[in-house]
Amino acid sequence: MTAAASPVPRTPWGLWRSPYLWLATIHLLGDTVVVLTSGLLVLGATVVVLAGFVLAPIGIPLSRWANRWVYDIAGWERARARITRGQEVPALVPPPRTGSTIDDAVQAVKDPGLWRQLIYYVILFWLAIGWLFLVPFAWSVPVVLIPLPAYYTHFAAAQAQLGPFVINSTMRASVVAVLAALFLLFLSPLVIRAASWFDGWLVKELLGPSETGVLAERVHQLVQSRQQVVDSVEAERRRMERDLHDGAQQRLVSLAMILGRAKNRLGDKEPAVRRLIEEAHTEAMQAIAEIRDLTRGLHPPVLTDRGLDAALSAVAARSPVPVRLSVDVQPRPKLTIESIAYFVVTEALANVAKHADAAEVDVLVEREHDVLRVVVRDNGRGGADPARGSGLRGLADRVAGVDGRLTVDSPPGGGTTLTAEVPCG
């Protein structure tokens, strides 16, 4: 957020006790120096940006360099605001390099940040002129008028001229002195505070990102962090699959083999012991089958090794309902996106087998530019409702986790079409 780092006193007494008042005064008077230095440098850099683009190809690198220079100069001004006012303003971000010299030069000319910063110094020029009159008036004129009674008594003639006003008595001189003292004590700090606030508002609006830009950057950061979480969860799922496959599953296989050998060696002896060994062997084989199904559901190795086509072909071959499969996903998307598409298909086929009473299923997986589309269509009885099925809700949540969208079209008696679209750029 572009806000002052420390609170600004609101009352004149608070301002008098705070260093903010004096630092703000120095800042306002320093605007003139900034205009004559940084402002002229920014103006020159802007001219170089425009002229460099025209003087292609020699001037194009100068155009890019001058654009970056403007951002560096604006950084000096933000640093000055931070030192004198405690104002923290996030930096504007220059346009990213495209890898093409011509495109970079075009971006340098079209860059809105460049023109915002130039506008800042143009406005600051006129403000600096105003501050040269306002700040000395706020501090010096009351100080000059406070000793007016003594001046009138000892040095003035019968009357003294104060602009359009005539001071011809000690009483009038005293009234003016009192008003000047009140102005100095109460109004001068507020005048400086108001001028400093406007100066700071200008820095925030033109040298810092807009609120829309801040929100867009925040959204971008959240999307990136969410993608990292999704990728880490997917990596953890693959690690669990490897651990189960290489650890627990192999131990159970070894146990089943030992039990099998024990059963064969025992022969017809000890029937009760043989039955126990057979039961243990059967339980071990069931545990192996369950772990194999579990690891296949977590992340099949064939998906990592050979991609969606091979993994979904294996799923279609195991499906109790005939499946017509079409996969075209070149170039290959990330593993996280492939996993989501894989689980959409496997969950949809499982639902078809359990609930749809369908004779066949069509599965289409295709990539169109930066979107991976998965369509699972059956000719069953329809009537699927994501609101009533936890499986479909889970699929929708998983697809939404990567900014995807899942829709279900399932009229009663008309079959079900499940469509998932997942960005994979």
TrEMBL record:
Domain annotation Signal transduction histidine kinase subgroup 3 dimerisation and phosphoacceptor: ranges: 236-303
Q: Which residues form the Histidine kinase/HSP90-like ATPase domain?
A: 342-423
Q: Which residues cross the membrane?
A: 33-58, 118-139, 173-192
**Listed EC numbers:** 2.7.13.3
Query: Where would one find coiled-coil regions in this protein?
Result: none
Q: Per its UniProt record, what CDD domains does this chain match?
A: HATPase_UhpB-NarQ-NarX-like
Give the top-level enzyme category: transferase
Which keywords belong to this entry? Answer: ATP-binding, Kinase, Membrane, Nucleotide-binding, Phosphoprotein, Transferase, Transmembrane, Transmembrane helix, Two-component regulatory system
InterPro entries cross-referenced by the UniProt entry: HATPase_C_sf, HATPase_dom, Put_sensor_dom, Sensor_HK_TwoCompSys, Sig_transdc_His_kin_sub3_dim/P
Which Pfam families does its entry note?
A: HATPase_c, HisKA_3, Sensor
| Name of the protein | histidine kinase
Can you state which reaction this protein catalyses? Answer: ATP + protein L-histidine = ADP + protein N-phospho-L-histidine
Q: Where is the Putative sensor domain?
A: 40-207
Species whose genome carries this gene: Kribbella karoonensis
